[in-house]
Design a protein that fits this description.
2 domains; 5 helices; two-stranded antiparallel sheet; alpha+beta; 150 residues
Length: 150
């Protein structure tokens, strides 16, 4: 039930952001300038404080919960967070904090695929460079021969 509530709140926040971006430009009362939809949208407030201790977060210490990454200040905070993660996430979302998405895992297949693609591109670039090097001397010889009248 708690997971469903958290998911609903995150979805509602995302829908409000999309709706705000779709509105017509809004007049800025302080400067009488028009704001673009992205400027009028809700400001992104990144997580800077640990939901357990209130101290500054350490980006190396985190818990992934329902596709979101929650940063903590210390390893000891993990156990406390895991006692009721939905409560902490709900509180953070209610405070307007935009939680980071869990990055997609990089599998060995992806690593190998990237490595193979990079190797293939390098081979092609080397082959093209070799061809250019072969052509340049021929062109220089032909230019020299034309100048000398041969």
């Amino acid at each position: 039930m708690k997971k469903l509530l958290v998911s609903f709140m995150v979805l509602a926040a995302m829908m409000m952001s999309v709706a705000a971006m779709a509105q017509e430009p809004v007049a800025d009362v302080t400067t009488d300038k028009e704001l673009t939809a992205s400027q009028a949208a809700v400001e992104v407030k990144e997580q800077t404080l640990c939901p357990i201790s209130g101290n500054e977060i350490n980006k190396e210490i985190f818990v992934d919960f329902e596709g979101k990454r929650i940063f903590l200040a210390a390893e000891e905070a993990k156990a406390k967070f895991l006692e009721d993660p939905a409560m902490y996430v709900t509180k953070m979302v209610a405070e307007g904090i935009t939680l980071a998405d869990v990055p997609a895992p990089v599998t060995e297949d992806v690593k190998e695929g990237v490595t193979d693609a990079v190797k293939e591109e390098a081979k092609e670039a080397i082959g093209e460079a070799k061809e250019e090097m072969k052509e340049e001397p021929k062109e220089e010889i032909q230019k020299g021969a034309a100048k000398s009248g041969c």
